[in-house]
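Task: sequence design from structure.
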């Protein structure tokens, strides 16, 4: 896929012009800061304090994602990178008669999630310790795949393969709902990417990304996007659907019967 010409945001060109350019996704995505192993170690380390950040800066976009997902009771739902389970318990509440799977690579985040979920008293779920590049599920299993604040910590070259993997496990007509930090659309939103550029630790390795071209390259249809800002953190909430046609080339290339659980008490 041809990537748009990289460019930094430049509000000196005038706010409206810059905003239009951002919406056209004509700007650079910064390099991911951490490799896979560093990400696992980082989230294991910050699991005990993660909720502070997760609630203060991300709850509004997560709430909007739940509304857009419009989960119907009885559906089979997958949450990828469920973290400490802030969203997972909300999915469970809306899906008492269905089934919910959650995956994450950090055992410490999963431990926190497990404690939070236990308080709901619901039993219709399973957590899996695994890398989302190789989901331990058969194809076409889920009505909904949700993931929040994952894409913004991963390398750009992983976006399409990972989205194809999400597409593989979704049923035809299934919904993909994602939230991640995106590029600033207002001057004050630039604060967080400034922190990222300065290599300060506050963002846990997140930088602004946009999903549209990658989601479309992975063969999804009907893309829609909303911008949400909370405490200056710019997020995009995106929705797309797996079509009823044959898989796209990208999907076929990356479809696999992989079973990548790294093993622990959390598995299928
Ligand atoms: C910023 S947190 C978001 C957690 C949760 N979705 C939320 O919104 O509160 C990112 C999460 O992605 C998980 N993660 C990172 N890389 C992953 C991968 N390759 N596969 C599965 N989970 C991953 C991390 O362990 C962490 O829990």
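Answer:
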């Amino acid at each position: 896929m041809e990537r748009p010409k990289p460019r930094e945001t430049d509000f000196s060109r005038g706010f409206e012009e810059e905003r239009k350019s951002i919406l056209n996704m004509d700007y650079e995505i910064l390099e991911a800061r951490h490799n896979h192993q560093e990400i696992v170690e980082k989230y294991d380390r910050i699991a005990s304090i993660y909720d502070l950040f997760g609630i203060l800066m991300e709850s509004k976009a997560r709430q909007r994602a739940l509304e857009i997902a419009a989960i119907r009771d009885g559906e089979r739902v997958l949450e990828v990178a469920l973290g400490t389970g802030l969203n997972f318990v909300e999915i469970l509440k809306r899906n008492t008669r269905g089934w919910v799977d959650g995956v994450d690579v950090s055992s410490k985040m999963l431990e926190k999630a497990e404690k939070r979920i236990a308080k709901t008293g619901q039993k219709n779920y399973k957590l899996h310790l695994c890398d989302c590049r190789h989901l331990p599920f058969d194809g076409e299993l889920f009505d909904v795949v949700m993931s929040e604040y994952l894409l913004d910590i991963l390398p750009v070259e992983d976006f399409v393969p990972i989205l194809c993997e999400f597409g593989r496990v979704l049923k035809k007509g299934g919904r993909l709902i994602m939230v991640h930090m995106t590029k600033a659309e207002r001057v004050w939103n630039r604060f967080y990417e400034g922190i990222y550029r300065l290599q300060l630790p506050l963002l846990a390795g997140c930088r602004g990304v946009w999903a549209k071209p990658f989601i479309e390259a992975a063969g999804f249809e009907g893309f829609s996007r909303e911008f949400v800002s909370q405490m200056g953190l710019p997020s995009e909430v995106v929705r797309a659907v797996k079509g009823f046609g044959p898989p796209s080339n990208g999907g076929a290339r990356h479809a696999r019967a992989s079973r990548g659980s790294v093993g622990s008490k959390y598995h299928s």
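Residues 50-69 form the longest helix (20 residues).
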